[in-house]
TrEMBL record:
Residues 160-197 form the Peripheral subunit-binding (PSBD) domain. Belongs to the 2-oxoacid dehydrogenase family. It holds the Pfam family 2-oxoacid_dh. It comes from Streptomyces kaniharaensis. InterPro entries: 2-oxoA_DH_lipoyl-BS, 2-oxoacid_DH_actylTfrase, 2-oxoacid_DH_E2_comp, Biotin_lipoyl, CAT-like_dom_sf, E3-bd_dom_sf, PSBD, Single_hybrid_motif. This is Dihydrolipoamide acetyltransferase component of pyruvate dehydrogenase complex. It is an enzyme of class 2 (transferase).
Amino acid sequence: MPVVREFTLPDLGEGLTGAEVVRWMVEVGEVIAVDQPVVEVETAKAVVEVPCPYGGVVTARYGEPGEEIAVGAPLVTVAVAGLEGPADTPAEPAGPAAEVERPLVGYGVAEPARGGRRRRVGAVAAAPAAVAVAPAAPAPAPAAPAPVASALAAPVVVPVISPLVRRLAREQGVDLAALTGSGPDGLIMRADVERAVAAKVSAPAAPTAAPVAQESVIPLRGLRKAVAEKLSRSHREIPAATCWVDADATELMALRRQLNATPGPKVSVLALLARICTVALARFPELNSSVTEDGSGIVRHSAVHLGFAAQGERGLVVPVVRDAHARTTEQLGEELARLTEAARNGSLTPAELTGGTFTLNNYGVFGVDGSTPILNHPEAAMLGVGRIVAKPWVHEGQLAVREVTQLSFTFDHRVCDGGTAGGFLRFVADCVEQPGMLLRQL
Protein backbone atom coordinates (compact mmCIF):
# COMPACT_ATOMS: atom_id res chain seq x y z
CA MET A 1 0.00 0.00 0.00
CA PRO A 2 1.26 3.52 -0.67
CA VAL A 3 2.03 5.69 2.33
CA VAL A 4 1.02 9.36 2.31
CA ARG A 5 3.77 11.67 3.53
CA GLU A 6 3.22 15.29 4.54
CA PHE A 7 5.94 17.79 3.62
CA THR A 8 5.90 21.04 5.59
CA LEU A 9 7.56 24.38 4.83
CA PRO A 10 11.13 24.02 6.14
CA ASP A 11 13.13 26.51 8.16
CA LEU A 12 14.52 28.86 5.50
CA GLY A 13 17.11 30.38 7.82
CA GLU A 14 17.81 33.96 9.01
CA GLY A 15 15.01 33.76 11.58
CA LEU A 16 12.28 33.73 8.91
CA THR A 17 8.89 32.55 10.17
CA GLY A 18 7.04 32.14 6.89
CA ALA A 19 6.98 32.69 3.15
CA GLU A 20 4.53 33.73 0.44
CA VAL A 21 3.63 31.26 -2.31
CA VAL A 22 4.75 32.68 -5.66
CA ARG A 23 3.88 29.75 -7.92
CA TRP A 24 3.37 26.01 -7.77
CA MET A 25 5.77 23.94 -9.83
CA VAL A 26 3.77 20.68 -9.57
CA GLU A 27 0.13 19.70 -9.93
CA VAL A 28 -2.01 17.33 -7.84
CA GLY A 29 -1.71 13.87 -9.39
CA GLU A 30 1.77 14.54 -10.78
CA VAL A 31 4.61 12.07 -10.20
CA ILE A 32 7.63 13.77 -8.62
CA ALA A 33 11.19 12.65 -7.88
CA VAL A 34 13.06 12.97 -4.59
CA ASP A 35 14.40 16.54 -4.08
CA GLN A 36 12.35 17.90 -7.01
CA PRO A 37 11.34 21.58 -6.49
CA VAL A 38 7.61 21.72 -5.87
CA VAL A 39 6.92 25.37 -5.06
CA GLU A 40 8.53 28.77 -5.39
CA VAL A 41 8.15 31.03 -2.37
CA GLU A 42 9.11 34.60 -1.55
CA THR A 43 10.58 35.33 1.86
CA ALA A 44 11.56 38.66 3.28
CA LYS A 45 15.01 38.06 1.81
CA ALA A 46 14.69 36.33 -1.57
CA VAL A 47 12.65 34.17 -3.96
CA VAL A 48 13.62 30.50 -3.53
CA GLU A 49 12.53 27.11 -4.88
CA VAL A 50 11.65 24.54 -2.22
CA PRO A 51 12.50 20.88 -3.02
CA CYS A 52 10.49 18.00 -1.56
CA PRO A 53 12.43 15.16 0.13
CA TYR A 54 9.81 12.58 -0.91
CA GLY A 55 9.27 10.94 -4.28
CA GLY A 56 5.86 9.73 -5.40
CA VAL A 57 2.46 11.10 -6.44
CA VAL A 58 1.34 14.54 -5.25
CA THR A 59 -2.02 14.02 -3.55
CA ALA A 60 -2.61 17.53 -2.19
CA ARG A 61 -1.02 20.93 -2.01
CA TYR A 62 -1.70 23.78 0.40
CA GLY A 63 -1.78 27.51 -0.26
CA GLU A 64 -2.56 29.61 -3.31
CA PRO A 65 -0.21 32.11 -4.99
CA GLY A 66 -0.04 35.20 -2.81
CA GLU A 67 -0.93 33.29 0.36
CA GLU A 68 1.40 33.33 3.37
CA ILE A 69 2.55 29.92 4.67
CA ALA A 70 4.11 29.58 8.13
CA VAL A 71 7.27 27.56 8.72
CA GLY A 72 6.16 24.06 9.75
CA ALA A 73 2.76 24.33 8.01
CA PRO A 74 1.89 21.70 5.35
CA LEU A 75 2.99 22.37 1.76
CA VAL A 76 2.19 19.12 -0.05
CA THR A 77 1.29 15.52 0.66
CA VAL A 78 2.90 12.76 -1.39
CA ALA A 79 1.89 9.11 -1.82
CA VAL A 80 5.15 7.15 -1.70
CA ALA A 81 5.59 3.45 -2.39
CA GLY A 82 6.29 0.49 -0.19
CA LEU A 83 6.22 0.96 3.61
CA GLU A 84 4.34 -1.53 5.75
CA GLY A 85 3.16 -0.32 9.13
CA PRO A 86 2.54 3.18 10.55
CA ALA A 87 3.99 6.08 8.57
CA ASP A 88 5.88 7.49 11.55
CA THR A 89 7.70 4.22 12.39
CA PRO A 90 11.26 3.94 11.04
CA ALA A 91 11.59 0.88 8.82
CA GLU A 92 14.43 -1.02 7.24
CA PRO A 93 14.92 -0.59 3.49
CA ALA A 94 12.43 -2.72 1.54
CA GLY A 95 14.83 -3.17 -1.34
CA PRO A 96 17.36 -1.37 -3.52
CA ALA A 97 14.94 1.49 -4.07
CA ALA A 98 14.81 2.43 -0.37
CA GLU A 99 17.58 4.66 1.00
CA VAL A 100 18.23 7.19 3.72
CA GLU A 101 16.35 10.43 3.14
CA ARG A 102 18.62 13.40 2.49
CA PRO A 103 18.13 16.69 4.34
CA LEU A 104 17.10 19.68 2.27
CA VAL A 105 20.28 21.32 1.04
CA GLY A 106 20.57 24.97 2.11
CA TYR A 107 17.83 24.91 4.73
CA GLY A 108 18.05 24.43 8.49
CA VAL A 109 16.19 21.13 8.83
CA ALA A 110 15.47 20.19 12.43
CA GLU A 111 16.57 16.84 13.83
CA PRO A 112 13.87 14.10 14.02
CA ALA A 113 12.03 14.20 17.36
CA ARG A 114 12.71 10.52 18.10
CA GLY A 115 16.45 10.75 17.55
CA GLY A 116 16.43 8.18 14.73
CA ARG A 117 17.30 8.79 11.12
CA ARG A 118 14.42 9.50 8.78
CA ARG A 119 14.27 7.35 5.68
CA ARG A 120 13.20 8.11 2.15
CA VAL A 121 10.75 5.53 0.86
CA GLY A 122 10.52 4.45 -2.75
CA ALA A 123 12.70 6.29 -5.26
CA VAL A 124 10.66 7.32 -8.28
CA ALA A 125 13.37 8.67 -10.54
CA ALA A 126 13.52 5.43 -12.56
CA ALA A 127 9.95 5.38 -13.89
CA PRO A 128 6.43 6.35 -12.86
CA ALA A 129 5.66 2.64 -12.42
CA ALA A 130 7.81 2.60 -9.28
CA VAL A 131 4.91 4.25 -7.45
CA ALA A 132 2.44 1.49 -6.69
CA VAL A 133 -0.82 3.13 -5.74
CA ALA A 134 -3.49 0.58 -6.73
CA PRO A 135 -4.97 -1.69 -3.98
CA ALA A 136 -4.05 -5.39 -4.09
CA ALA A 137 -7.67 -6.61 -4.21
CA PRO A 138 -10.98 -4.96 -5.03
CA ALA A 139 -12.43 -3.72 -1.75
CA PRO A 140 -14.00 -0.53 -0.46
CA ALA A 141 -11.09 1.85 0.06
CA PRO A 142 -10.85 4.59 2.69
CA ALA A 143 -11.00 8.17 1.56
CA ALA A 144 -7.66 9.22 0.06
CA PRO A 145 -6.23 12.75 0.09
CA ALA A 146 -6.63 12.89 -3.68
CA PRO A 147 -7.07 10.39 -6.56
CA VAL A 148 -3.76 9.24 -8.02
CA ALA A 149 -5.05 7.37 -11.08
CA SER A 150 -4.39 10.46 -13.17
CA ALA A 151 -0.72 10.67 -12.18
CA LEU A 152 0.39 10.71 -15.80
CA ALA A 153 -2.22 13.25 -16.89
CA ALA A 154 -0.84 16.33 -15.19
CA PRO A 155 -1.93 19.67 -16.66
CA VAL A 156 0.42 21.30 -19.13
CA VAL A 157 2.43 24.11 -17.58
CA VAL A 158 2.71 27.35 -19.52
CA PRO A 159 6.42 27.93 -20.36
CA VAL A 160 7.48 31.22 -18.77
CA ILE A 161 11.03 32.62 -18.61
CA SER A 162 10.90 33.49 -14.88
CA PRO A 163 8.55 33.64 -11.89
CA LEU A 164 8.76 37.42 -12.04
CA VAL A 165 7.08 37.33 -15.45
CA ARG A 166 4.41 35.02 -14.07
CA ARG A 167 3.83 37.41 -11.17
CA LEU A 168 3.60 40.41 -13.52
CA ALA A 169 0.95 38.57 -15.55
CA ARG A 170 -1.00 37.73 -12.41
CA GLU A 171 -0.92 41.31 -11.13
CA GLN A 172 -1.97 42.73 -14.51
CA GLY A 173 -4.69 40.13 -15.10
CA VAL A 174 -3.05 38.63 -18.19
CA ASP A 175 -3.91 35.02 -19.11
CA LEU A 176 -0.56 33.38 -19.92
CA ALA A 177 -2.26 30.49 -21.69
CA ALA A 178 -3.65 32.95 -24.24
CA LEU A 179 -0.20 34.34 -25.13
CA THR A 180 2.21 33.23 -27.82
CA GLY A 181 5.75 33.42 -26.47
CA SER A 182 8.42 35.21 -28.49
CA GLY A 183 11.28 33.36 -26.78
CA PRO A 184 12.93 30.08 -27.78
CA ASP A 185 10.42 27.21 -28.17
CA GLY A 186 7.55 29.58 -27.45
CA LEU A 187 8.91 30.72 -24.06
CA ILE A 188 6.86 33.62 -22.73
CA MET A 189 9.05 36.67 -22.09
CA ARG A 190 8.38 39.81 -20.06
CA ALA A 191 7.93 41.77 -23.29
CA ASP A 192 5.08 39.42 -24.27
CA VAL A 193 3.22 40.20 -21.05
CA GLU A 194 3.87 43.93 -21.38
CA ARG A 195 2.48 43.90 -24.95
CA ALA A 196 -0.64 42.17 -23.68
CA VAL A 197 -1.03 44.78 -20.94
CA ALA A 198 -0.57 47.61 -23.46
CA ALA A 199 -3.19 46.03 -25.72
CA LYS A 200 -5.66 45.92 -22.85
CA VAL A 201 -5.03 49.58 -22.03
CA SER A 202 -5.42 50.72 -25.64
CA ALA A 203 -8.55 48.64 -26.30
CA PRO A 204 -11.79 50.67 -26.22
CA ALA A 205 -13.55 50.23 -22.93
CA ALA A 206 -17.11 49.00 -22.83
CA PRO A 207 -19.61 51.77 -22.16
CA THR A 208 -20.63 52.04 -18.55
CA ALA A 209 -23.41 53.87 -16.85
CA ALA A 210 -21.02 56.16 -15.00
CA PRO A 211 -17.33 56.06 -14.14
CA VAL A 212 -16.71 55.00 -10.57
CA ALA A 213 -13.45 55.90 -8.84
CA GLN A 214 -12.08 53.01 -6.85
CA GLU A 215 -9.32 52.90 -4.27
CA SER A 216 -7.14 49.86 -3.84
CA VAL A 217 -5.14 48.58 -0.90
CA ILE A 218 -1.84 46.89 -1.74
CA PRO A 219 -0.82 44.55 1.08
CA LEU A 220 2.72 44.74 2.43
CA ARG A 221 4.21 41.31 1.85
CA GLY A 222 7.54 39.63 1.43
CA LEU A 223 10.45 41.94 0.73
CA ARG A 224 8.34 45.12 0.78
CA LYS A 225 7.03 44.25 4.24
CA ALA A 226 10.53 43.46 5.54
CA VAL A 227 11.87 46.76 4.17
CA ALA A 228 9.00 48.72 5.73
CA GLU A 229 9.55 47.12 9.13
CA LYS A 230 13.31 47.66 9.02
CA LEU A 231 13.08 51.31 7.99
CA SER A 232 10.42 52.01 10.60
CA ARG A 233 12.59 50.46 13.28
CA SER A 234 15.61 52.44 12.15
CA HIS A 235 13.64 55.69 12.23
CA ARG A 236 12.31 54.92 15.72
CA GLU A 237 15.52 53.74 17.36
CA ILE A 238 18.46 55.52 15.72
CA PRO A 239 19.15 59.22 16.35
CA ALA A 240 20.56 59.84 12.88
CA ALA A 241 22.23 62.99 11.57
CA THR A 242 23.49 63.88 8.09
CA CYS A 243 26.28 66.09 6.82
CA TRP A 244 27.29 66.68 3.22
CA VAL A 245 29.94 68.25 1.00
CA ASP A 246 30.47 68.95 -2.70
CA ALA A 247 33.54 67.28 -4.21
CA ASP A 248 35.38 67.68 -7.51
CA ALA A 249 35.43 64.17 -8.99
CA THR A 250 37.30 65.14 -12.17
CA GLU A 251 40.52 63.39 -11.15
CA LEU A 252 38.66 60.30 -9.99
CA MET A 253 36.93 59.99 -13.37
CA ALA A 254 40.26 60.52 -15.13
CA LEU A 255 41.78 57.71 -13.03
CA ARG A 256 38.92 55.41 -14.01
CA ARG A 257 39.44 56.14 -17.70
CA GLN A 258 43.15 55.48 -17.26
CA LEU A 259 42.55 52.14 -15.53
CA ASN A 260 40.04 51.03 -18.15
CA ALA A 261 42.45 51.87 -20.97
CA THR A 262 44.69 48.99 -19.83
CA PRO A 263 43.97 45.24 -20.30
CA GLY A 264 41.86 43.62 -17.61
CA PRO A 265 38.38 43.87 -16.08
CA LYS A 266 36.70 47.26 -16.33
CA VAL A 267 36.61 49.31 -13.14
CA SER A 268 33.32 51.00 -12.29
CA VAL A 269 32.84 54.26 -10.41
CA LEU A 270 31.07 52.24 -7.71
CA ALA A 271 34.14 50.02 -7.30
CA LEU A 272 36.37 53.07 -6.81
CA LEU A 273 33.93 54.51 -4.27
CA ALA A 274 33.84 51.15 -2.47
CA ARG A 275 37.63 51.16 -2.26
CA ILE A 276 37.55 54.72 -0.84
CA CYS A 277 35.00 53.57 1.77
CA THR A 278 37.16 50.67 2.97
CA VAL A 279 40.20 52.95 3.26
CA ALA A 280 38.20 55.59 5.14
CA LEU A 281 36.77 53.00 7.54
CA ALA A 282 40.28 51.77 8.30
CA ARG A 283 41.06 55.36 9.31
CA PHE A 284 37.77 55.80 11.26
CA PRO A 285 36.99 52.26 12.55
CA GLU A 286 34.37 53.48 15.03
CA LEU A 287 32.01 54.02 12.08
CA ASN A 288 32.13 50.34 11.10
CA SER A 289 29.98 49.41 14.07
CA SER A 290 26.47 48.96 15.43
CA VAL A 291 24.67 49.47 18.73
CA THR A 292 23.59 46.40 20.70
CA GLU A 293 19.93 45.35 20.79
CA ASP A 294 19.41 46.77 24.29
CA GLY A 295 21.33 49.96 23.50
CA SER A 296 23.88 49.34 26.25
CA GLY A 297 26.98 49.00 24.10
CA ILE A 298 28.62 49.47 20.71
CA VAL A 299 29.82 46.51 18.64
CA ARG A 300 32.88 47.45 16.60
CA HIS A 301 33.25 45.11 13.61
CA SER A 302 36.68 43.89 12.58
CA ALA A 303 35.68 43.19 8.96
CA VAL A 304 33.99 45.52 6.48
CA HIS A 305 30.95 43.85 4.92
CA LEU A 306 29.95 46.55 2.49
CA GLY A 307 26.29 46.85 1.55
CA PHE A 308 25.22 48.85 -1.47
CA ALA A 309 21.81 49.89 -2.74
CA ALA A 310 20.69 48.09 -5.91
CA GLN A 311 17.41 48.35 -7.79
CA GLY A 312 15.78 45.07 -8.81
CA GLU A 313 12.39 43.93 -10.08
CA ARG A 314 11.38 43.22 -6.45
CA GLY A 315 12.32 46.75 -5.40
CA LEU A 316 15.33 48.31 -3.74
CA VAL A 317 17.61 45.78 -2.06
CA VAL A 318 20.99 46.01 -0.31
CA PRO A 319 23.34 43.18 -1.33
CA VAL A 320 26.48 42.78 0.76
CA VAL A 321 30.08 42.43 -0.43
CA ARG A 322 31.74 40.21 2.18
CA ASP A 323 35.20 41.21 3.45
CA ALA A 324 35.34 44.25 1.18
CA HIS A 325 38.42 45.50 3.02
CA ALA A 326 40.41 42.44 1.84
CA ARG A 327 39.52 42.76 -1.86
CA THR A 328 41.39 44.59 -4.59
CA THR A 329 39.61 47.27 -6.61
CA GLU A 330 39.16 44.81 -9.49
CA GLN A 331 37.76 42.17 -7.13
CA LEU A 332 35.38 44.72 -5.65
CA GLY A 333 34.20 45.61 -9.16
CA GLU A 334 33.60 41.97 -10.10
CA GLU A 335 31.62 41.22 -6.93
CA LEU A 336 29.59 44.43 -7.22
CA ALA A 337 28.71 43.54 -10.82
CA ARG A 338 27.72 39.99 -9.88
CA LEU A 339 25.47 41.10 -7.03
CA THR A 340 23.92 43.88 -9.11
CA GLU A 341 22.96 41.41 -11.83
CA ALA A 342 21.54 39.02 -9.22
CA ALA A 343 19.46 41.90 -7.81
CA ARG A 344 18.07 42.67 -11.27
CA ASN A 345 16.95 39.10 -11.96
CA GLY A 346 15.75 38.43 -8.42
CA SER A 347 18.20 35.61 -7.65
CA LEU A 348 19.90 37.05 -4.55
CA THR A 349 20.06 34.61 -1.65
CA PRO A 350 19.17 35.54 1.94
CA ALA A 351 22.86 35.29 2.88
CA GLU A 352 23.74 37.88 0.22
CA LEU A 353 21.26 40.35 1.69
CA THR A 354 22.26 40.22 5.35
CA GLY A 355 25.24 40.89 7.58
CA GLY A 356 26.30 44.30 6.28
CA THR A 357 28.32 46.63 8.54
CA PHE A 358 28.35 49.79 6.36
CA THR A 359 26.30 50.88 3.34
CA LEU A 360 27.28 52.76 0.17
CA ASN A 361 24.24 54.40 -1.42
CA ASN A 362 24.85 55.56 -5.00
CA TYR A 363 21.58 57.44 -5.48
CA GLY A 364 23.21 59.43 -8.29
CA VAL A 365 22.10 56.66 -10.68
CA PHE A 366 18.57 58.05 -10.24
CA GLY A 367 19.71 61.47 -11.49
CA VAL A 368 19.56 63.23 -8.13
CA ASP A 369 22.22 65.25 -6.32
CA GLY A 370 21.51 64.70 -2.63
CA SER A 371 19.59 62.69 -0.08
CA THR A 372 19.20 62.18 3.67
CA PRO A 373 18.58 58.42 3.75
CA ILE A 374 17.39 56.27 6.64
CA LEU A 375 20.17 54.07 8.02
CA ASN A 376 20.14 50.37 7.24
CA HIS A 377 19.45 49.07 10.76
CA PRO A 378 21.49 48.08 12.76
CA GLU A 379 24.38 49.74 10.89
CA ALA A 380 25.75 53.01 12.25
CA ALA A 381 26.64 54.85 9.04
CA MET A 382 25.94 55.26 5.33
CA LEU A 383 27.76 57.17 2.61
CA GLY A 384 25.58 58.66 -0.13
CA VAL A 385 26.86 59.71 -3.55
CA GLY A 386 24.93 61.98 -5.90
CA ARG A 387 25.21 62.20 -9.66
CA ILE A 388 28.54 63.29 -11.14
CA VAL A 389 27.78 66.21 -13.42
CA ALA A 390 29.70 69.01 -15.15
CA LYS A 391 29.47 72.27 -13.15
CA PRO A 392 31.33 75.56 -12.93
CA TRP A 393 34.01 75.16 -10.24
CA VAL A 394 36.94 77.22 -9.00
CA HIS A 395 40.01 75.09 -9.72
CA GLU A 396 43.50 76.36 -8.89
CA GLY A 397 42.17 79.90 -8.62
CA GLN A 398 40.40 79.82 -12.00
CA LEU A 399 36.78 79.24 -12.92
CA ALA A 400 36.54 75.98 -14.86
CA VAL A 401 34.02 73.30 -15.82
CA ARG A 402 34.64 70.29 -13.57
CA GLU A 403 32.88 66.99 -12.84
CA VAL A 404 31.28 67.56 -9.45
CA THR A 405 29.35 65.31 -7.07
CA GLN A 406 27.65 65.81 -3.73
CA LEU A 407 28.59 63.41 -0.93
CA SER A 408 26.35 62.91 2.09
CA PHE A 409 27.11 61.02 5.26
CA THR A 410 24.37 59.79 7.60
CA PHE A 411 25.45 58.40 10.96
CA ASP A 412 24.14 57.15 14.30
CA HIS A 413 24.87 59.96 16.75
CA ARG A 414 25.19 57.43 19.58
CA VAL A 415 28.28 55.97 17.91
CA CYS A 416 30.19 59.17 17.23
CA ASP A 417 29.98 62.94 17.36
CA GLY A 418 30.00 65.43 14.51
CA GLY A 419 33.77 65.75 14.53
CA THR A 420 34.32 62.09 13.69
CA ALA A 421 31.58 62.10 11.06
CA GLY A 422 32.92 65.29 9.50
CA GLY A 423 36.45 63.90 9.50
CA PHE A 424 35.31 60.75 7.72
CA LEU A 425 33.37 62.67 5.08
CA ARG A 426 36.20 65.13 4.50
CA PHE A 427 38.67 62.27 4.03
CA VAL A 428 36.33 60.61 1.51
CA ALA A 429 35.95 63.91 -0.37
CA ASP A 430 39.74 64.37 -0.44
CA CYS A 431 40.16 60.87 -1.91
CA VAL A 432 37.56 61.67 -4.57
CA GLU A 433 39.33 64.89 -5.45
CA GLN A 434 42.86 63.46 -5.15
CA PRO A 435 42.63 59.68 -5.68
CA GLY A 436 46.41 59.42 -5.46
CA MET A 437 45.93 59.67 -1.68
CA LEU A 438 44.77 56.06 -1.75
CA LEU A 439 48.34 54.98 -2.47
CA ARG A 440 49.29 55.96 1.08
CA GLN A 441 46.94 53.27 2.39
CA LEU A 442 48.24 50.37 0.24
